[in-house]
Each structure stands twice: as structure tokens, then as C-alpha cells.
Hints:
By secondary structure, the protein is an alpha/beta fold. The chain has helices at residues 20-30, 45-53, 59-70, 74-91, 124-129, 142-155, 164-174, 190-194, 220-231, 246-251, 253-256, 270-279, 294-301, 314-317, 332-343, 348-363, 366-377; strands at residues 8-11, 35-38, 97-100, 117-120, 158-161, 181-183, 207-211, 238-242, 261-265, 282-284, 306-309, 324-327. The chain has a 6-stranded parallel β-sheet, with helices on both faces. A 6-stranded parallel β-sheet has the order 9-8-7-10-11-12, with helices on both faces. Helix 13 links the parallel strand 10 (282-284) and strand 11.
Amino acid sequence: xxxxxxxxxxxxxxxxxxxxxxxxxxxxxxxxxxxxxxxxxxxxxxxxxxxxxxxxxxxxxxxxxxxxxxxxxxxxxxxxxxxxxxxxxxxxxxxxxxxxxxxxxxxxxxxxxxxxxxxxxxxxxxxxxxxxxxxxxxxxxxxxxxxxxxxxxxxxxxxxxxxxxxxxxxxxxxxxxxxxxxxxxxxxxxxxxxxxxxxxxxxxxxxxxxxxxxxxxxxxxxxxxxxxxxxxxxxxxxxxxxxxxxxxxxxxxxxxxxxxxxxxxxxxxxxxxxxxxxxxxxxxxxxxxxxxxxxxxxxxxxxxxxxxxxxxxxxxxxxxxxxxxxxxxxxxxxxxxxxxxxxxxxxxxxxxxxxxxxxxxxxxxxxxxxxxxxxxxxx
Length: 379
């Protein structure tokens, strides 16, 4: 008789913007693991009380204060740890495995007495130095917050990271033991695997695609600056921008209204987004901060080569010259050169599409990622 699979207690907020905890929970359940979801934010007061304390008439300041008070403060860390402990005590069974998909609390107040693993896509030190991340502790609380984060990693049986760059940060900046940290990547949303690409075309469509809700953070202004340089050589090209709202579009002024640029706005219909991926020649998003962009994986699932910047996880996702190009961050000229390089060779369309799709299937599915996690956790 086969041994029964152990219970997996997933400590996370499945509805976070990345949905990392949701993907992992769904994968475990789909493979027959009994899963107990531990979400400290299911209670009313952990969500409502910080919002009340953070209130400010300026919306942007209210937003930032909500994140600081609600998540990125020592008080929030300790509060969420207590709620995690209460839930975990109710649901955990003998022999269970604990996997925390977050870095803003402990899985239990008695975490030092327990065996647990952690899966992360970024860390607080990177957030405090990248110059863009709004989700970070207030300067006066940074040292206390970092001290808690260091203890989280130090006492974990193992830490899984989205990429090698993040593993290096844990080892070099947090003092984590290299043998207890494994870079496993991320997986594409299963929706895109359930909708494989149609046969790859030989001819260019003449469409560049940008997808990102935060236009500035995702390098959108650099794309706009590069587009006229590309149009000078390829006048029939179009740039399709999906995600930014009307206010972000208006902020770009005349550059955003140049001929050949189409703004779609926020798109929550996956079928429509899928169509954009399939219609484009090249996905262009030289992001200024992207821990391990799921949007690149979505594009790759449809055989769409990608251009990304030379930071965070992008050089690990994109095989430069084979499945797209890596360019220096904040360099519209180099970005334009990469786009023109792609269009200079008609054979790039099919060849790079095939290599891109194959790379996605080989490295960036949840089956691939979770097989590495399960091997380490011995489940």
C-alpha cells in the first residue's frame, strides 16, 4: 500500500497581487495533498484596524501608511504571527509539513520549535534599495523588521527563492546558509498552459506589446522613448500598451499620443489578454523592479519572445539572443537596438517562438517548480 501524502499547511495570503500562495495551494490540492490554508488576514481586525490607524486625507500617503502599519512594521509582524499560530493550532495534524509563502511574519509564535520552509519572491533589503518598492517598513522601523526577517530565514529548515539573484541576497545580506536555500523559479498561471499557442507564423505581425499596471515601474517611459527610434527604421510597427489606467496615459503627454501607439487600459479578461500575446511579435517590458515577472511567463507560454532589463529575475527568465533580449535598465537606445535586431532577421519569428515556448515548458511550470520543492521537503 502506498504511503498517504502528508498534510501541507500553506501559510500565505492567496489573494495577494502575485497569487504565489494560491498557485502553490492549488497545485498541492491538485496532486492529492491534504492542504490546510493558514491566512492571518481572514480575520476582520487585521485588515480593518490598520486601515483606520493609517487614515490620511492624502490618498497616496494613506496608501503607503496602510502598507507600513498593516504589513511592514514590527507590530504587524507580531500581530499576524499570533493569528497564524491560532489558525495553525486548529488545523495542523501529526506529520504535517509547513510551507510559508511570505516573508512578513512567522508561521507561529513558537516557530523556533517547529520545522517549516519558506518560499519567497523578494525580500525587505532589496525593497529598501531598489528605489521603487512602496511595500516596505518605515525608516524608523527598518532595523527591527529586518531582524525579524533574518530570524525567519535562519530558523527555517529550507528557503525556496524564485531566482538565483534572490538566493545570493539571502546568503550575502542575511547570512543564510547556502545549502539551505534553493532557487526554484516560478510557474506560469495554468490558464496559459490550458490554452497552448496556435502554430507559429513565419511572418511578422508588426506589433510590439507592453503589459503592466504600473507604467513607470515597469519601464514604460523607456519603451515610449525607444519607439520613435524603432519607427524610424520600421515605420509600420505598432505599440500596444495594456494595463495602465487613463491617469498614467495622460501623464505621458505627447510621447504617449504618438502615431502607432494604442492604449488598451486595465485588462482583467484573460481571453482578451491571451489574444494580445498571440497577435504580437515581441513582448517589451524593461522593468525597473521585477522580482520574477509572471507576465513574462504568460507571454512565453504563447511563444512570444521577451525583452527585459538586466536586473532582478529577468536575466534568469530570458535567454538572451534565443528567447528574447536583455538590455541595460533605463536605456531606450539599447532597447531600440534590440527591437531592430529582432526585426532585421525574418527567421527570428518562428525560431525564437519555438525556443521561447520550449523554455517555458522546461523551466516555468508549477509541475517543474513544485517537483524541486517536494524533493527538498521530502513529500
